[in-house]
């Protein structure tokens, strides 16, 4: 058994005209729902290009902050390469490390030897369903002059991420198959309305 903590996830996307129907079905099968507006910044190691040239995938660091909650702190997290599609054909299972940062996450990341690569804002909804969190959002681009988000165009695709709310360990008491089954339940619930599937991200 490995000591890694994992995230189990499936993904989908849809057009705005399906929003109400999808919102209704997810709300019906969730314990709670609230609006979300998050800022996410992706960092890469300062020698990322050197690592790529050497044939390695640099480990990216992500910082996320929920903007609608004034108490919200920066969350730093990082994913490693997803487990093989042969082992988990139906869901993305990837090692996941996370930590909460008090204060300035951006300075913290640069102190670790990371440089900012990109940032986006995500606006939409978050649902809780048992051990899962379901995020449904449109990406907003950043105005280069003001650094503020520009509201998404009405035609912007909606993205859906169904994933474990907290990192899970693969143990006899909590085998990863339980988390895979939980996300596949949502896949089944949304069938005919939204196609949710594994992706290598």
Keywords summarizing the entry:
single chain; 201 residues; alpha+beta; Hypothetical Protein Pfu-838710-001; 18% helix
Can you list the strand order of the major beta sheet? 1-5-4-3-2-6-7-9
What is the succession of H and E elements? EHEHEEEHEEEEEH
The Cα radius of gyration reads 18 Å
Q: What overall form do the CA principal axes indicate?
A: globular
CATH architecture descriptor name:
Beta Barrel
Structure in words:
The protein is of the alpha+beta class and 201 residues long. The protein has a single domain, classed as Hypothetical Protein Pfu-838710-001, CATH 2.40.320.10. 18% of the residues lie in helices and 42% in strands. It contains four helices and ten strands. An eight-stranded antiparallel barrel has the order 1-5-4-3-2-6-7-9. Strand 3 and strand 4 (74-79) form a beta hairpin. The longest helix is centred in the C-terminal third of the chain and has 14 residues, at 176-189. The radius of gyration is 18 Å and the shape is globular. The mean pLDDT is 92.
């Amino acid at each position: 058994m490995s000591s890694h903590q994992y995230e189990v996830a499936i993904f989908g996307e849809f057009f705005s005209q399906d929003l109400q129907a999808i919102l209704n079905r997810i709300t019906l099968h969730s314990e709670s729902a609230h609006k979300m507006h998050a800022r996410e910044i992706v960092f890469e190691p300062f020698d990322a290009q050197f690592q790529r040239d050497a044939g390695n995938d640099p480990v990216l660091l992500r910082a996320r902050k929920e903007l609608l909650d004034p108490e919200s702190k920066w969350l730093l997290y990082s994913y490693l390469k997803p487990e093989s599609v042969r082992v988990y054909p139906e869901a993305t299972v990837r090692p996941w490390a996370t930590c909460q940062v008090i204060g300035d996450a951006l300075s913290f990341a640069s102190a670790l030897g990371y440089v900012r690569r990109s940032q986006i804002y995500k606006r939409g909804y978050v649902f809780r369903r048992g051990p899962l969190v379901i995020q449904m959002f449109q990406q907003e681009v950043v105005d280069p002059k003001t650094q503020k988000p520009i509201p998404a165009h009405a035609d912007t695709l909606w993205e859906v991420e169904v994933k474990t709310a907290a990192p899970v360990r693969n143990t006899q008491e909590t085998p990863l198959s339980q988390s895979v089954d939980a996300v596949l339940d949502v896949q089944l619930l949304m069938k005919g309305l939204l196609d949710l599937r594994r992706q290598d991200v």
